[in-house]
Amino acid sequence: MGDHAKQYAPVEVTxxxxxxxxxxxxxxxxxxxxxxxxxxxxxxxxxxxxxxIGATGIPDDRRNGMHVLRHxxxxxxxxxxxxxxxxxxxxxxxxxxxxLRTYTHLLPTSEDRTRRAIDTAFGEDQAAKDGPExxxxxxxx
Length: 141
Prior knowledge:
It is a single chain. By secondary structure, the protein is mainly alpha-helical. The protein has a domain at about 65-130. About 50% of the residues lie in helices and about 10% in strands. It has seven helices and two strands. A hairpin with a 7-residue loop joins β1 (about 10-15) and β2 (about 25-30). α4 packs across α5 (about 95-105). Keywords: DNA recombination. This is Integrase.
């Protein structure tokens, strides 16, 4: 368990799932209000995010909005190779196609994947760490 979870124990909350009248589902929340209620965007944004942005002097605009955290999360996972299907689940999207359409510009290109695969197969990653003298390139052929 991480330090944050040790200091701020998660809270189990039962809520309707999917829609306001959906079947109740119990989930563990790490971010709650001070009185251990589910933290909603409508409370977090004006009560936590906006004051934090204001205190830093960062412009309070769309580029620094709370929704950027969601896109950052998605882009980090995609860069690490997470699948669209898994990301769709993590983001709460009902359709992986929507996730793909929204985040396709963040996916590595086929050329990037191909280059990395070949570099790895030929040990270029290790050669770069060992220095140029370790590379056995065309000049030795």
